[in-house]
Amino acid sequence: MTRYKVKDPELTRRRFINVATGATATVGVMSLLGTLGGAHPMFRMTEDKKPPMEGDILVHADPAKEGTPITVADLGTTLVQAWPMGTDAEGNKIIRKGEPNNLLAVYKFAAGELSGEANVEATIDGQVVAYSDICTHAGCPVPDAKDGNGMFCPCHSGQYAPKQGGIVVGGPPPHKLAQLPIVAEGDNVKVAGFFLTPPYPYTDEATWEATKEAAKGA
Ligand code: FES
Q1: For residue 105, what is the domain's CATH number?
Q2: What are 116-153's pLDDT values in tens digits?
Q3: Domain total for the chain?
Q4: What are the residue boundaries of the Rieske domain, all occurrences included (predicted)?
Q5: Which of 15, 16, 156 is the best mutation target for the ligand 1 pocket, counting ligand atoms within 8 Å of the beta carbon and taking the most?
Q6: Which one, 2, 12, 66, 103, has the greatest CB density within 10 A?
Q7: Structural domain includes residue 171
Q8: Is residue 1 part of a domain?
Q9: 74 lies in a domain?
């Protein structure tokens, strides 16, 4: 029997998503459709629901400055939440927040501080690193720990170490946070490819691979 009892983890997850991003209650439905879009071809994967794609620019998710490109100068050891922003076939800018699980966590650490399972090749200068900001346990957005020691999921006390590649250091999460490869483009942070490992809600490589192919072909 698990130590962590959850009456309704999906409702809990949505509540925290709404708090974290200022989204409305429709977000939960959109999340479901977005996930289905990845897993089931019968659902069209629209641009706003695609996972972060190569060439996307990271923009602030904070409602006060949502859509503003994140610059390296904006970043530090405190988590900055981001959305990937791409373009549609007509060249219009699309923030990919139709899938709430696209929420990202971005940090800049001092040179040499990233270690463990962090893929330094997928960072900017070994200092700026991006992860999925969605807990791999039941899908809550993960803020910084209040004591400044890593990230702490408020839903069931999952803990992650962003300096060590987003590994799990406490609580029930089954997997580390997926790292998103990034590069600098001028002052901006650009996505260099898909998540290096399956992000929430994907639990297996095959489904995640199918989703990537669907996103490329949509
Ligand atoms: S959702 Fe359960 S620990 Fe994060």
Answers
A1: 2.102.10.10
A2: 999 999 999 999 999 999 999 999 999 999 999 999 99
A3: 1
A4: 123-191
A5: 156
A6: 103
A7: yes
A8: no
A9: yes
Distance separating alpha carbons of residues 161 and 205, to the nearest angstrom: 23
Report how far residue 120's alpha carbon sits from residue 122's, in angstroms, rounded to the nearest whole number.
5
pLDDT tens digits, one per residue of 168-199 = 999 999 999 999 999 999 999 999 999 999 99
Does residue 170 have its Cβ closer than 6 Å to ligand 1?
Answer: no
111 burial type by CB count under 10 A (0-12 exposed, 13-18 middle, 19+ buried): exposed
Write the single-letter amino acid at 192: A
Task: Provide the residue type at 188 as one letter.
Answer: N
d(CA 141, CA 123): 22
Scan for tokens 């602030």, then name that residue.
Answer: 60
Distance, CA 123 to ligand 1 centroid (Å)? 26
- Asked if residue 43 has pLDDT above 90, the reply is no
Domain residues for the domain of 122 are: 9-217
**Which residue's entry shows tokens 């399972």?**
117
